[in-house]
Amino acid sequence: MARDISELGADVFDDTVVVNKSKISPKKRNYIIGLSITGVLLAGAITASVILCNTVLLDYANVTNVTYYFTPQTALEEGQESTAVLYKLQSDVTYPSTFRIPSQVKGYKVVGVAEEAFAGHTEIKHVIFPNTVEFVGERAFAGCENLSKFTWGKKLYDIGVDAFDGTAFYNNLLKQTNILYDLPSGVLIYVGKDYLPQGIALVSDELPESEYASIKAEYGSTSVKKFSEYNIRNFCSGAFKGNDKITYIDLPKGITEISKSTFEGCYNLQGLDTTHSSLTKIGVRGFAECYALNYIKLKDTVDTLEDEAFRGIGLTDSIPDLTHVELLGDFLFAECSELTGLTYDLTIVPNYMFAGCSNLATIEWGVDDAKIDTVDSFGLGAFMGTKFSEFVVPKNVTSIEDETFEGCTSLTKVMFYGNPNYELMPDLGGSYIDDDGVEREGVLKGLQLIKASAFDGCTSLATIGLYGDDYLDWDVTPNEFHFPRSLEKTDINTTVSGSNNRVFYGSAATKVVFSANTKAIGSYAFANNSLLEEVEFKNADKSRLTTVKKNAFENCSSLQSLTFPASLESVEASAFKNCTSITSIDLGSTKIKSIPSELFNNCPELVSASIPNSVTNVKSNAYYQNYKLEYVILPTSITELQSKAFTKMRLDGEGTMPIFFAWGAGDTTRRNIASSWKDITVQEYYFLAEGEEKVEGKHYWQYVAGVPTIVD
User: Fold this and answer.
1) Torsion of CA 312, 315, 320, 322, to 10 degrees
2) What integer is the mean pLDDT of 320-334?
3) What whole-number distance in Å separates Cα of residue 483 and Cα of residue 496?
4) Among residues 616, 600, 598, 619, which one has the least CA distance to residue 608?
5) Cβ-proximal residues to 43 (8 Å cutoff; 6+ apart), any chain
6) pLDDT class for 77, splitting at 50, 70, 90?
7) Which of 627, 695, 689, 683 shows the shortest CA–CA distance to 662?
8) How many CA atoms lie within 13 A of 96 on its CB side?
9) How far apart are CA 516 and CA 435, in angstroms?
10) Could you give the strand order of the β-sheet that contains 511-514, starting from the edge strand earlier in sequence?
11) From its phi and psi, is residue 431 left (phi > 0), alpha (psi between -120 and 50) or beta?
12) Could you tell me the pTM of the whole model?
């Protein structure tokens, strides 16, 4: 910050070196129109002597608290000079009605006026710019209600949005349309306000005369105007935002960039042609929410389309050619709700590219899908909320990213590359299990990851099938998910803050089939799949599954049974919560070490749930409302039973559920067993070894013909 100079005298300026906030910061540099003033500065005799290297006129001897900041040498590019920017006029000081901005301060050239520098100074009526000043920040003179006159400098080219808001200068501009033509060539037109007098088609001077009439007829405008009639040289941020008078735009030759929100919300704009311009970039939300915009022709010089550039526009059956664009922003065509289909020629689909295009139902990867093999990635949320009923994922797409198809309620079938004769990628090393259960070297080409919320809310998705080379030989079983052998995870650390991995949350399959190569099932991955009846692990003895995360099968109310492969090492809390129809969950051959909280919460039909010898603890509420569970055998590996580990295991009046400890009543070496590890619906039994004496008050069990049997 510039330091306070109130006690140093009128002829002293702050020369503290600080980071240059001029031009002014990328987020705050919202300039109106680039302009080149050719008018001559006010000529007149200045009789007072000039002090401080001609930075303050003698008339300003009583001006105090004008602060500046300077560009530090460390922030300069090679060959640049350090410059100054007029930063602030103190709010409680009265300044002269005519204010001349100095050209130098302490030897530094004054090149700009910061945002809100003069704001609210009603005593100022006239501002004189030196020829050194190049830019004026947003709202620089806002609220200077008596300011009616400017003497322009010759190098001024950028004026920030609302720089003259609430001034007499702007009020006069509103009342006297001819003021637009009275000012010098290249004059400022105060855009950002609704100054066009009627429905306008703005067209390039290079547009052939023969096309004027057709434009007028096509877009229904009552007036066709050339850009030169308005002396427009460039566009600032928000320049025409919300202007309902523009129906067609043909950009002129000199325009190189559309700034942030320049034409945002021009809801009557129907057509955009950039081929006569020198356009290279369209900034953030440049044409967002132009609901009628259904024709776009981009010149091949355009290499940058920033975030949301065309969000919510009126395209119906195509998007412009993007093959020459090098930088594609996020949400580029998001919420184009009238878009029904398109041809796409790029190798990637950026983040949220078509998110919210609620009627988008078809896509061709090049004409007749000729470029489908060049597509290699989808961004986050690329097709979120679209209307596809079927979708074929190109074979070179290796990952379905977060939210890619989230909320696609019309999606019924998805196809992945699943040719048995996979192309291997040996350079990546590794190995895989083939369909015969044989381990082979290499990494399979095809889909490897399905990430967080990829198909979350796809409530009609019932079928995932596989296709072969040339996208033929489809292998589809209706209402079943069959994942390719290349798939390693339906779980990955999400990049969406706070999101669970709800990969297939709420989908409609009745059966899910995993290959032996799948390593993890993510949190909430199949939660709320109310039609899911069966889960199969192919080649289970070779399976690489290690992790089932929290709530993975929660609310799968039709699921009948689950048998997990021996490779499983971890199952997390609530994985089977509210599986109200499940009768059997076999974890007996796995390597899991914990029965986590609420694992079997509200599984009232569960009859058997084997526990492997690797388990060391049972967490709180792990077993809850398992009314039909015949019994539980706790292995000798158990070291901990938490409070309420077993609760409400029988309905009132229906007796108790036996828990068989694999250790004897005399084993006192144990264990961290909470006093409240069970409630009255549970009865514990100790293993009675051969020849062991019973202890009064204890209950016992033994194996009889391999079946645990109470021997009280």
Assistant:
1) 40
2) 97
3) 24
4) 600
5) none
6) low
7) 689
8) 17
9) 8
10) 390-392, 413-417, 463-467, 480-482, 511-514, 534-537, 561-563, 584-586, 608-610
11) beta
12) 0.76
Calculate the alpha carbon distances from 555 to 479, 602, 618 in Å: 18, 10, 22
3-state DSSP assignment of residue 464 = strand
Say if residue 175's pLDDT is above 90: no
What is the band of 347 on the pLDDT scale with cuts at 50, 70, 90?
A: very high
Alpha-carbon torsion (218, 219, 220, 225), positive or negative: negative
What radius of gyration, in Å, describes the C-alpha atoms of the chain? 37
502-515 pLDDT per residue, tens: 999 999 999 999 99
Partners of 441 in beta bridges: 431
In 394-447, which ranges are E strands?
399-400, 413-417, 431-433, 439-441
The whole-angstrom separation of Cα 696 and Cα 383 is 68
What's CA 285's distance to the chain center, in Å?
A: 15
DSSP string computed for 357-388: -TT--EEEESGGGTTGGG--EE-TTTTTT---
Task: Provide the pLDDT for residue 581.
Answer: 98
Residue corresponding to tokens 């690489």: 544
**Tokens representing residue 681 in the block:** 């619906």
Other beta carbons less than 10 A from residue 600's beta carbon? 24
Q: Return the structure tokens found at 47.
A: 């009789």
> What is d(CA 163, CA 193) in angstroms, rounded to the nearest whole number?
12
What mean pLDDT do residues 623-651 have?
95
Pick from 569, 580, 574, 577: nearest CA to 545? 569
The CA distance from 656 to 508, in Å, is 37
Cβ atoms of 318 and 294 within 8 Å: the answer is no
Look up residue 92 and give its two tokens: 């409680």
Helix count and strand count (H, E) for the chain: 3, 53
Strand partners, 415: 392, 465
Could you tell me the pLDDT band of residue 79, with boundaries at 50, 70 and 90? low
User: Average of pLDDT values for 609-616?
Assistant: 94
- Please name the amino acid found at residue 156: L
Q: Which residue has the higher pLDDT, 319 or 32?
A: 319
Read off the tokens for 328. 């594609």
Distance of alpha carbon 387 from alpha carbon 406, whole angstroms: 11
Confidence bin at 208 (pLDDT 50/70/90): confident
Q: Work out the mean pLDDT of the chain and round it to a whole number.
A: 83
CB 711 within 8 A of CB 688: yes
